[in-house]
Specification:
By secondary structure, this protein is mostly beta strands. It folds into two domains: 3-48, SH3 type barrels, CATH 2.30.30; 56-253, Fumarylacetoacetase-like, C-terminal domain (Fumarylacetoacetate hydrolase, domain 2, Alpha-Beta Complex), CATH 3.90.850. It has helices at 64-69, 123-129, 142-147, 152-155, 172-176, 201-209, and strands at residues 3-8, 11-18, 21-25, 40-41, 46-48, 56-60, 79-83, 88-89, 95-97, 104-106, 108-114, 130-138, 140-141, 161-169, 179-184, 187-193, 219-221, 229-230, 236-241, 245-253. Strands 7-6-17-11-12-14-8 form a seven-stranded mixed beta sheet. Strands 4-3-2-1-5 form a five-stranded antiparallel beta sheet, with no helix packed on it. A five-stranded mixed beta sheet has the order 9-20-19-15-16, with no helix packed on it. α2 (123-129) crosses α6 (201-209).
Length: 254
């Protein structure tokens, strides 16, 4: 089952992939969305980022080798930061390189979508609240990140939160040991396993929920494996998570 967000005749909708077509839905799957209208060919719709979160919560240095390549210690507890929801970018849409940065980099990540309100949750309650999984490219202006204490500006430029191409129903087997890859122009740059996370998904959601209330539809980006690297105008970057799919975005100068 693959759920999408789509634009059809100028209207944004939820949908479900159905062979080579799309079945429009009345709402988000975790809100009980059902078939609404006739299926349409996928060629007639524009795929959008398949989330509408109130917030995007990200986790830094959650893979040991990535922490090492950044010259930072493995954190004693999850290191959280936020990306602005206005940075959301869908499959196939360009990543815009801001003129103020000379080192924009890709970060391949597993994304978790929350299916119900979550506050002060145990790891078991948090695991049960993960409703869907997706691919995320946590695009980062690395030079800006290095010279500022906070990650907000470096992480939140428009188009810097690439998500998709769709959502798949969450299974613990998938989030516990899925391969996470980033390719640039067909060349593999990142190749890791979610099993190498310092803090696994259920523990992350539990920790986050003790700091802020998570709402249905919120997106959690769980950290990136080693191998992050620079993107240049003209590149095509692909993020693939085993069992989910592949998210592809071209890179252009803003």
């Amino acid at each position: 089952m693959r759920y999408i967000r789509l634009a059809l005749d100028g209207v944004e909708r939820w949908g479900r992939m159905q062979g080579v077509g799309v079945q429009p839905l009345s709402g988000a799957p975790w809100e009980g969305g059902v078939a609404a209208g006739a299926p349409v060919p996928v060629t007639e719709v524009q795929l959008l980022a398949p989330v509408q979160p109130s917030k995007v919560v990200c986790v830094g240095q959650n893979y040991r080798k990535h922490a090492a390549e950044m010259g930072k210690p493995v954190p004693a507890e999850p290191l959280l930061f936020l990306k602005a929801p206005s940075s959301l970018n869908g499959p196939g849409s360009p990543i815009l390189l801001p003129a103020v940065s000379e080192d924009v980099q890709h970060e391949a990540e597993l994304g978790l979508v929350v299916g119900k309100r979550l506050k002060n949750a145990s790891p078991e309650e948090a695991a049960a609240a993960i409703v869907a999984l997706t691919c995320v490219n946590d695009v980062t202006a690395r030079d800006i990140q290095r010279r500022e204490v906070q990650h907000t500006r470096a992480k939140s430029y428009d188009t810097f939160c690439c998500v998709g191409p769709w959502l798949v129903p969450a299974t613990s087997a998938l989030w516990k040991d899925a391969r996470v890859l980033a390719r640039v122009n067909g060349q593999v740059r990142q190749d890791g396993q979610t099993g190498d996370m310092v803090f696994p998904p259920a523990e992350l959601l539990s920790f986050i929920s003790h700091a802020m209330t998570l709402m249905p539809g919120d997106l959690i980006s769980t950290g990136t494996p080693a191998g992050v690297g620079r993107l240049l105008a003209g590149d095509v970057v692909e993020i693939e998570v085993e069992g989910i799919g592949m998210l592809s975005n071209p890179v252009v100068a803003a």
